[in-house]
Amino acid sequence: MLDKHLHTSQFEALKPIADISTPFGPMATVHVDTMLSSWACMIFVLVLALVVRPQLTSTGPGGTGQAIAESIYTFLDDLCKGQIGHDYKKFLPLIAAIFIFVLTGNLFGILPWALLTAIPGYPHLPNGHGHFEVASPTTDINVTAGLAVIALVTYIYAGIQKHGMHYIGMYFKPLGLIEWMDLIIRPVTLALRLLLVITADELTRMVALMLLPWIVAPVAVMGFEIFIAFLQAFVFALLTSIYIGLAVADHH
User: Fold this and answer.
1) Of 63, 69, 151, 54, nearest to 102 (Cα)?
2) What's this model's pTM, rounded to 2 decimal places?
3) Where are the alpha helices (DSSP H) in 92-140?
4) Which residues sit opposite 22 in a β-bridge?
5) In this model, does residue 100 exceed pLDDT 90?
6) Which of 176, 172, 182 lies closest to 151, judged by CA?
7) What is the mean pLDDT of residues 35-42?
8) How far, in Å, are 8, 10, 132, 218 from residue 17 at the CA level?
9) What values do phi and psi take at 105, rounded to 5?
10) pLDDT per residue as tens digits for the range 184-193
């Protein structure tokens, strides 16, 4: 959850990382749990791809893995083509990577991590706040802001590649202030929307399971969380595609 991260000071081997500082104070605080959960999501996606790839075939319907992979590809291909246009192929791998990572990260926090608290030595939060609770990496502003910056750099690059320096020139026209506001608001809203929705989703689950700890309510809550996980991954990928489409549009 927000402000309940495991910091490097709780891990002896990672203390050198925490020494990154400036004369004005610490330069950064490393959230170890976010790094580990993000790496776990990436490793899961890569391993899943390695498992599915040998099963792919062009001479038949293929297995379940191929059916799911083709469905995801078709969905993302249609999404990018509809929002970006004929130049969409070069951006499809990035949009697909963002969608799959965000989806995996959103679903990561739904797993029954509370069962791990029974393991001896399971980490506690500082100042006696109880056991650490594993959360989705997308509840950390560092992750969502990083994804938003990637989207920002991509659509600026796409605009320059399509229109040359004329694309940069629009920021210095009489109405350039509006463009500068867009440049700031777009990544900020991308980062905050994903962060706040997934955090609120996890808080909702926590409260629901505390108030109604029997079968029906947890199943309904988990179903709703899975829906939100897919929806937010779709929204992030969709908005990134829209911004790229606006950057490469011919009206610039």
Assistant:
1) 151
2) 0.81
3) 92-108
4) 25
5) yes
6) 182
7) 91
8) 7, 12, 21, 39
9) -65, -40
10) 889 999 999 9
